[in-house]
Amino acid sequence: MEVYCHPVVLVHGWKSNPAIWDGLVIRLEEESVPCWNFDHAAMKDVSLEEISHALRRYISTERDTCGYRGPIDIICHSMGTCIGRYMLEVIDGESRTENVRQLIGIGPPNNGSSLAELFNHPRHGREIIEKLEGVFVPRNYDPKKDIIVQQFRPGSPAMTRLKEAGVRKDIVYRIILAANTTGTESFFPSFGGRTMELNTEGQLETTYSGDGIVPHRDSYLPGAKIDVLPADPQQLGLCPDMYCHINLPRNTEVIDRIMDYLCDPPHVA
Hints:
Rossmann fold, two-stranded antiparallel sheet, 10 helices, 33% helix
């Protein structure tokens, strides 16, 4: 299999770490694709903007280290997608000095996170948090003390800046989503196989069109190419939990799809 060996930058998500990419890193190494694994796990109580600036410095350092000035691909999980987008669209939106071929987002809350909003809900918030304690949030989690969660509420100043900046026409955006098309409860047991979301009136609903954490409504992005997995619904009977949000970067079908993207040079409009 031929791979176009542009360096790949990996950006993990909220309360995660670079080890989430171990399976993908092995595949990249097998195909001799240079991999730059950005680690922001130690950046506590900082803003989306600060992490995005750190990502930009990290990429600059990696470029200087290897002397590479050509195009790169950025692969992100969850809120990591918005870190990459904020760097490219808000911080670098006018100068466009970052040479990026494509940005691939896995389960991204591009429009803000319904769950972040629901964490703060006066009636539903505590119940939802208790269901996710030890699974997606730490014990005794208080969203009001979490800068990132507050910034990822739909309509927040940070999400508004990202929306107003808009996507870049010189970059191809690709989104990988998961859906529980068979209604399998073990897909994400905390919510009975469903995903919490906010409808257009801001009311709580549940849907199978999501990965347990991020509903499709949160992920859509103008002009982005979208893949919804699994391609074969029977996979949900074999390994349903591997299609939930937390496990998507480790999912072999997701990794295969990423490798396909890297082999298929994108073309911007």
